[in-house]
Amino acid sequence: MITKRRRLAVVQELVNLHPSNNQSKLLKLLHERGFKITQTTLSRDIKQLKICKVPNDKGDYLYTNPKQETTNLNRSPKKNKINAILNRGFISFEFSYQFGIIKTHTGYANLIASDIDSLASPVITGTIASENTVLIIPREGVSREDVFNTLEMIIPAIKKESEEI
C-alpha cells in the first residue's frame, strides 16, 4: 500500500518535473506511477501542498510548487528566474496602519504570499492572498522599515517602486 506521504512527495515531484496546466495530466502521470486516486483526491493533495497556478513567460498558467521555488531561492540561476517572476508579478506596495498591501498582476499573489510566508517568519506573522492582492501581517513590535527591508530581499522591484514615491 502506498502512503499518503509518498503520494504527496510524488505530486510535488511531478509538478516540478512536468509543468502542467490541468489536473488531468497530473492524474495520468500519477496513474502511470501506480497511484490509483481520483481527481478529487488529487485536488485535495494540491490544496494541501499549496500548489498554485502561475503564469509562465508565455502567459500560460501552470501548476507551480511554491516550496520548490522557495528552496531554490539561494541557488543563483533559479534565484534570478524566481526574482524575475516575482518582479514581473509585482505592481505596487503600500502600508495601511501596520499592515502591508502588495498589488500584483492576476495569478501572482499566491506565489508571492507563499515566498513571504516561507522567508520572512521573524518579521511577518503571515499573509492572506487573493488573485491580485497580498495582505501582509507583521509581527507585534516590528517597524515598517523592517517589513519593507524584508520584502525588498524577496521582491527587489519593491525598492524601485518605493523610490518613485
What does this structure look like?
The protein has two domains: 4-70, Arc Repressor Mutant, subunit A (Orthogonal Bundle), CATH 1.10.10; 72-164, Gyrase A, domain 2. It is α+β, with helices and mostly antiparallel strands and 165 residues long. The chain is built from eight helices and six strands; from the N terminus they run αααββααββαββαα. The protein has helices spanning 4-17, 23-32, 39-49, 66-71, 76-89, 109-119, 144-154, 157-164; strands spanning 52-55, 61-64, 90-96, 99-104, 124-129, 133-138. The strands form two sheets. A four-stranded antiparallel sheet has the order 3-4-6-5. A two-stranded antiparallel ribbon has the order 1-2. The chain is elongated.
Explain briefly what this protein structure is.
By secondary structure, the protein is α+β, with helices and mostly antiparallel strands.
The number of helical elements comes to 8
What would CATH call the architecture of the largest domain?
A: 2-Layer Sandwich
Q: What coarse outline follows from CA principal-axis ratios?
A: elongated
Number of strands: 6
| Helical coverage, percent range | 40-55%
CATH topology of the largest domain: Gyrase A, domain 2
What proportion strand? 15-25%
| C-alpha Rg (nearest Å) | 17 Å
The top level CATH class name of the largest domain: Alpha Beta
